[in-house]
Amino acid sequence: MLGTLLMVLFNAILVWSLMQERQSQIQQLETRLEQLGSVNEQVLSTVLAPYGLSSKAQRGSFVMPVQFKLALSSGSLTVYSQPLWQQHSHWFIAINVLLLIFLWRLVQWLRRTEWRSARAFSHRGGQKKEAEHQDTHPASANLLGVNQLYQSVFAIVYCQRLSSVATGIASLFETLLQEQLQHQQRVSVKVLNSGCLAITVKEVAYKQLETHLQNFSVMALKCCRNLLPDLRRDEVKVGLCNYRSGADQAVVYQLCQSALALARQSEHKHCYRIPFSHNHSMLLAAKSCSLVDAINNEQFVCFFQPVFGLYNEEIIHHETLLRIRHPQLGLISSEYLLSHSTPESAARSVDIAVLKRLETMLKSEQLQADISLNIHPSSWLDDDMWRRLEEFLTAHSRVCLECPAALLAKQPRLIAKRLKSTAACQRGIIVDQLSKWPTDSLSTLKVPIKAVKLASELISHVDTDRHIQRRVLSYVANAQRFGIAVYAVGIERQQQAEVLKQLGVQGAQGFYFTGAINQLSAFNLPQ
Questions:
Q1: Predicted confidence (pLDDT) per residue in 157-201, tens digit
Q2: pTM, two decimal places
Q3: Which of 9, 8, 5, 17 is nearest to 84 (CA)?
Q4: Containing H/E element for 66?
Q5: By Cβ atoms counted within 10 A, which residue in 8, 113, 198, 343 is the most buried?
Q6: How far apart are CA 310 and CA 462, in angstroms?
Q7: Cα 159 to Cα 173: distance, rounded to the nearest angstrom
Q8: 3-class DSSP state of 498
């Protein structure tokens, strides 16, 4: 049908254009005959021939000729011509042949496209049936006592503007979220005392889990915007935790709260996920282990983690790290045993123990590079601890302090006063865990800054996130203006090291460089 319409349309356009041309020729012929005046039959035939006309009708033709009457001053003159389709038959044949070839190729292309689409659809349908068949037979998983083919998702959604009316919108939010889900999982929404919305999505197929988790923050944002259309993206923060059946719900809740805390601290990433694993249960169980008892019983080790140059692969300096010997988990960081409820005296006792152990290590180990030392923020505020630290730094000229960037931003005057009054700190310090460039804080310091260490939250996605790359590049540019070196902490992949090198970061430390060295270089006193 479409091909017929196209052919009729093109032929009609051709006939119309030829008729317009014929009318123009008739007008030109009339003007020329008026100029010639009275002419005989032979001259008239000569004048009409270029226009495809004749003064007499052709006899014996199967096609009736077309006649035209020319209006002259001396009277009307009748002339004859072949029909347009016969006179210009070559045009009609060429155009219709081209149209037929085009339509034939178009039909062939549509048939191939339809066949490929049908084949792809049947292939996807077969895969879907196969997946459904596999999902309905979790025999091997049931032998283990858990269903490995399904997981649940627990999420906490924080929106300050909705927290005051969260109780009234919980059921509406659940309905809106149910509409967003593609596979109709069971959803429940509850309101926490803080005003946050706690969401549980049951039985998400494992093959759909990653897609579901990636889209969850978008679905939560859409639901919130259905309630408050003028919400900005950074006003909605989401913490996620996916877990299998039988997981400790208290651990799941704490992991989700931790993910939400990370999301609320980040300026640009609004959703964090921490998947549940049995290691998390063990790490949370480590809270029962007393940090003070571990220090008093000397159940800890200190070692030097080197910072390598990204350009020459030489050791720039060493950072002193502490690990606690846990009876079940092995060597763990003391951060797992520290909490807000930990007394400051316990944290200072850890720093005192590290100073004693470091002094012993410096006597026995011959290191070419300088050494940096981190202390707890409470030790910066304690006068007795600071005097002890000042004596240690004076006795060991190769050791310098690392100051957390968060503490420097919070207490810039106090930190500047401490450093200015300590002669040993005049040789320079290192700013640690830098996530935002401290313009005002650096201007208050009266001591040299040897280097700044970028926070691990910048490093974890630096190889994929262009926004983080731009931030790191701006920090490197700021550091170069002050003559400060920039180091990275927590390097785990080669891609991270390559990107940081291109951004101008001079050194880095982490598992990628020293994962196998830490245990070999660990130093522990005999008990």
A1: 988 777 766 667 777 888 888 777 765 567 888 888 777 888 888
A2: 0.49
A3: 17
A4: strand 66-72
A5: 198
A6: 15
A7: 13
A8: helix
